[in-house]
Design goal:
mainly alpha, 2 strands, 6 helices
Length: 100
């Protein structure tokens, strides 16, 4: 019984760590929440302009890194249009954005 209790405590601890630190994961120097702030602006058919939270995230992102996702099936699988996503830096008026 004691071994089962220890396993349960470890499992609960891991679940808390994952829940607390999920936002710590990042892609191309943008956190998950920053990426999600940009999702509506890159989702068809009539995307709104990018939010200030989206543009703030893009302002410190590694934009060249995002080029590798341009032709990836990942973006469409989560409802993001890669062409719309690639327009976000210019819509946010980010200087020197790379052309992919």
């Amino acid at each position: 019984m004691e071994a089962t209790s220890k396993k349960l405590v470890i499992l609960l601890g891991l679940m808390v760590m994952i829940a607390c630190c999920a936002d710590a994961q990042n892609i191309c120097n943008m956190t998950y929440s920053e990426l999600m702030a940009c999702k509506p602006a890159a989702t068809p058919p009539n995307p709104p302009p990018p939010t200030s939270a989206c543009c703030a995230g893009l302002s410190h992102a590694n934009l060249k890194c995002f080029c590798q996702y341009k032709n990836s099936p990942i973006l469409p699988s989560i409802g993001v249009d890669p062409k719309l996503a690639m327009q976000l830096p210019s819509k946010c008026k980010i200087p020197n954005a790379p052309t992919c």
